[in-house]
From TrEMBL:
Chief place where the protein resides: membrane
Pfam families registered for this protein in UniProt: MbhD, MnhB
Organism for this UniProt entry: Candidatus Accumulibacter adjunctus
UniProt-recorded name of the protein: Monovalent cation/H+ antiporter subunit B
Domain of life: Bacteria
Record's keyword terms, sorted: Cell membrane, Membrane, Transmembrane, Transmembrane helix
Keyword Transmembrane: yes
Domain MrpA C-terminal/MbhD: 11-76
Membrane topology type: Multi-pass membrane protein
The Na+/H+ antiporter MnhB subunit-related protein domain, residue ranges: 190-295
Location of this chain's protein in the cell: Cell membrane
Transmembrane intervals: 47-72, 93-113, 149-167, 187-208, 220-239, 246-267, 279-303
Record's GO cellular component terms: plasma membrane
The keyword Repeat is annotated on this UniProt entry: no
Amino acid sequence: MTALLSLVVALLLLWLALWTVVARDAFVAVAGFVVYGLLLSLVWVRLAGIDVALTEAAIGGGLTGALLLGAVGRLRGTETAAAAERSGAGTRAFAALLSLGVTMVLALCVLALPEPAPTLAPQAADNLPATGVGNPITGVLLAFRALDTLLEAIVLVIALLAVWSLAPDRFWGGRPGPRYVADPDGVLGYLARVLPPIGIVVGLYLFWAGADHPGGKFQSATILAAMWLLVQMAGLGDAPRIDGRWLRTGIVVGPLAFVAVGLLGAWQAGAFLGHADGWAKPMIVVIELALLPTLVLVLALLLNGAPARNSGNMPAGDGGR
């Protein structure tokens, strides 16, 4: 029964992947991508990768799906002309052969892996007690490969700056995205009042439990950012001005604290991002606490987009959404 369920899920994944690629309508393709991400999270649950499943559902299916939906909304005016275009038979054949070739190469690479596959999991498990945390994912991300995690946080901040750089000069320092207007007594307004308290509790629990159980700052930040965006979309709140000092402080506090912990490790343990005996877990907690507001702000502001107005109103000519 378990094998049959796994086969059905695998076939559904392949069908959704093909659907997403061949769909001519952009909205349909994005919808397929979101469903694909959610179904893929079930696959990770089946493989006992709960942390990866949470990340896939929150970021792969949720955040990325929302970004793509925003892009679809902006490209609606050009979609009709693009849909009318047709590639030549030679181009389609080349694309099909290239896709088939890449698939075969990936399959051969997987089949050529040695048995058992090389892994550092035993070494990570043996050294996990030195970090003071019970969740091996947290230990790996913030101790054994902390430099990668630091660079990921910095890349997110740089990505936000890149989005902000797209703003017209007259809106620089203003509020990103449109001012949403919705019926305060409608379903969206109701959800924006009911869901955020629940989402905040769930997000904070995932953050707190991440040291010893599945969860962590990325999953928590995604849920908290989603609750903030829901309030904005219901018209119950507005995006902040990007020239606010508290906002900019919250964005940079995570990477700066991460670097400070790394320098402390260089002084105490003789290696950047190293930890002296007994200091690993306190320093991991400091990094997690500092990165949480950074990730919440960056993820939410990335979805808001570039600054588009200087006041609480939408720029002239921009309709409500």
